[in-house]
Design goal:
With 254 residues, the chain is an alpha+beta fold. The chain has two domains: 58 residues; 184 residues, Umud Fragment, subunit A (Ribbon), CATH 2.10.109. The protein is built from three helices and 17 strands. Strands 1, 2, 5, 6, 14, 15, 16 and 17 form an eight-stranded antiparallel beta sheet that branches. A hairpin with a 2-residue loop joins β7 and β8.
Length: 254
């Protein structure tokens, strides 16, 4: 079950602010006239919580929002259990809840790691890497990607064992100005030859764990309006019942 945290935070901000304002302008003067000094408990809580909730709401809506990585689809760049921060203004300022863009700032670039609302179910947040920009022609053949007729450069790095114990091959891939690692499972064959033409206002997204990612190769393109922001920082990695992985804290996402 998905939770609309932006809506919850907005409602809490409005409710606590309304209680505080209503008391300050209406009930508090009456209490002072009647000689009553103590304010109701509900007003005390509202007065204390409103500034805190408002600050969190503004920061989360317009600056940076935390997310937790739920799967291995972006391994090795991001691991299951990573807690990340997402830049909410990188691709424009949007009104919270309605997600309407009001200020243009920038557009996604090839290689960006992006959080977006899944086109088939906008209640779900996905995270993938931008491969195709509007107008691009994308081909996926024999586990290699081609952008506008040019093969995406890969350099073999070595072997790797995934979090679930599967053997994999690590390669360094170059997407635009971004160099990043990807995983391929040598025992998994993929004979597909897929061709895509990215429509205007849409993006083609892929996971770094190429043989274990549900991405644009399967379900198509991401509309610009579904973009949430650009992932840029790992601030924690933690699984319930285990110690945090301290070496991942503070990692810049590339």
């Amino acid at each position: 079950m998905s939770v609309d945290y932006a809506l919850i935070m907005l409602l809490l901000t409005v409710i606590t602010g309304a209680i505080w304002a209503l008391d300050a302008f209406w009930f508090a003067p009456k209490r002072r006239t009647a000689g009553i000094e103590r304010e109701p408990v509900a007003v005390e809580y509202a007065r204390s919580l409103f500034p805190v909730i408002l600050i969190i709401f503004v920061l989360r809506s317009f600056l940076a929002e935390p997310f937790r990585i739920p799967s291995s689809s972006m391994e090795p760049t991001l691991e299951e259990g990573d807690f990340i921060l997402v830049n909410k203004y990188a691709y424009g300022i949007r009104l919270p809840v309605v997600e309407r863009k009001i200020i243009e700032i920038g557009d996604p670039e090839r290689g960006d790691v992006v959080v977006f609302r899944f086109p088939a179910d906008p209640r779900q947040d996905y995270i993938k890497r931008v491969l195709g920009l509007p107008g691009d022609e994308i081909v996926y053949y024999q586990k290699r990607l081609y952008v506008n007729g040019v093969i995406v450069d890969q350099e073999l790095i070595g072997e790797h064992v995934t979090e679930n114990g599967m053997p994999a091959i690590v390669s360094q891939e170059q997407l635009g100005d971004v160099s990043h690692p990807i995983l391929n499972m040598p025992e998994r064959r993929d004979p597909r030859q897929l061709r895509f033409k990215v429509p205007e206002g849409h993006y083609f997204m892929v996971g770094d764990n190429r043989d274990n990612s549900n991405d644009s190769r399967s379900w198509g393109f991401v509309p610009e309006g579904n973009l949430v922001g650009r992932a840029f920082f790992i601030w924690m990695n933690w699984h319930i019942g285990e110690w945090p992985e301290w070496n991942r804290i503070g990692t810049i996402i590339k």
